[in-house]
Amino acid sequence: MEKKTSRVLVVDDSAFIRQYLKDIINQTADLEVVGTAADPLKAIHILKKTEVDVITLDVEMPNMDGLDFLRYLMKFHPLPVVMISSWTQANSDIAVQALALGAVDVVTKPTLGLLSGMEKIKEEIIEKIRTAAQASIVRSSPLAADPPAASGSRTLTAKDDGLKITTDKIVAIGASTGGTVALTEICKQLHPDVPGLLIIQHLPAMFTSSFANSLNQIARIHVKEAKDGELITSGLALIVPGDRSLTIQKSGAKYMAKLGPKLKDSIYNPSIDHTLFSVAQVAGVNAMGIILTGMGDDGAAGLKAMREKGAYTICQDEKTSIIYGMPQKAWEKKAAVKQVPLSKIAEEIHRWAGIKYLIMNSHIKSGR
Q1: What span, in angstroms and rounded, lies between the C-alpha atoms of 283 and 280?
Q2: Which of 335, 336, 326 is nearest to 292 (CA)?
Q3: I need a labelling partner for 286 at 20 to 30 A (CA). Which of 14, 91, 119, 208 fits?
Q4: Residue 89 to residue 108: CA distance in whole angstroms
Q5: Catalytic status, residue 298
Q6: DSSP helix, strand, coil percent of the chain (3-state; round to 5)
Q7: Domains and CATH numbers, the chain
Q8: Which of these is catalytic: 85, 141, 176, 271?
Q9: Is residue 191 among the annotated active site residues?
Q10: Which of 298, 317, 321, 350 is catalytic?
Q11: Of residues 202, 209, 278, 317, which has the active-site annotation?
């Protein structure tokens, strides 16, 4: 069977970038540029008359900001988007916001030596467009929704009798492509007394701190980038820094994060497998492991090790995954006990931890 060609729309205000991307994409057998636009308004016009599978998008453009266009797309015309822009440490929060709004991935455009710099990231661009072409994008991204309402919209009930939250419980969550959206959906629902969490999200080093900050703003738990020697306590989620490795050690009744250098034998840094193997050995039956949306197989072996040590293990289901690669591999390896839709994963964490957590809609009046 002939491989399907993915149709790409390039949106960038730079004529050089538009032509460069068009050239390298059209040189790829399974990709084809079906249109280019210098600003989002022209892109919208193209979308009305041309079938498109993937969009590459810059941020700073005339007539409409790239992030505003991304919001529009996710609401009215959901499509896989790869952001290609001059990301720097200073505006890494913008990159995280783009991922939060539903972008599948981001590519850092060089700021100096544009042609030579673009040549260095050519393969990365093509690979990320290919990955995006496989993504399942749904209307109204969870992260684009309003943040949780103030008191009155949620009712937190008492914990189950006989099921006490203890410091020797830990939840480890691994995610890649689409994970920023999934993790925000989960964190928005978590009870403040949930056991300590480790989050291993495939992100470049410049983005993990900003991502932690964005989660911390919408969650009832405290979310931060992990530091070496930090205790993993109830109500706290630690995000593994990009280009680092993380294991855990027991410290009394608690767990402690141990940061290490980038792994030389892994294509993934941070590595989900590396952390989950550690959690399996140190926490065993007192751990819960979760694999979310993502490309590849990172985490499948580690999750299986956790299950074999008695941990409760689940993975995100196909319907709600942006990319069903990592959860599928975990399921095929029998590493997960069951597959769970994204909207129910927080509920699974609460059930395992022994927490009753009832979310009430603010428009439902008491007594009705």
Answers
A1: 6
A2: 326
A3: 208
A4: 11
A5: yes
A6: 35, 20, 40
A7: 6-139 (3.40.50.2300), 155-358 (3.40.50.180)
A8: 176
A9: no
A10: 298
A11: 202
What are the tens digits of pLDDT across the range 9-54? Answer: 999 999 999 999 999 999 999 999 999 999 999 999 999 999 999 9
The CB density around residue 314, as the number of other CB atoms within 10 Å, is: 26
The amino acid at 261: P
Q: How many CB atoms lie within 10 A of CB 103?
A: 28
Q: Which two three-digit tokens encode residue 308? A: 């074999």
Catalytic status, residue 176: yes
Q: Which residue has the tokens 């995954």?
A: 321
User: DSSP secondary-structure letter at 144?
Assistant: G
Tell me which DSSP letter residue 109 carries.
-
pLDDT for position 141: 41
How far apart are alpha carbons 180 and 203 in whole angstroms? 9
Q: Pull the structure tokens for residue 6.
A: 């993915």
Q: What is the rounded CA–CA span in Å between residue 200 and residue 323?
A: 16
Instruction: Tell me the two tokens of residue 120.
Output: 């260095």
Q: Yes or no: say if 181 and 195 are a contact pair by the CB < 8 Å rule.
A: no
For 261-311, what is the HEC assignment?
A: CCCCCCCCCCCHHHHHHHHHHHHHHHEEEEECCECCCCCHHHHHHHHHCCC
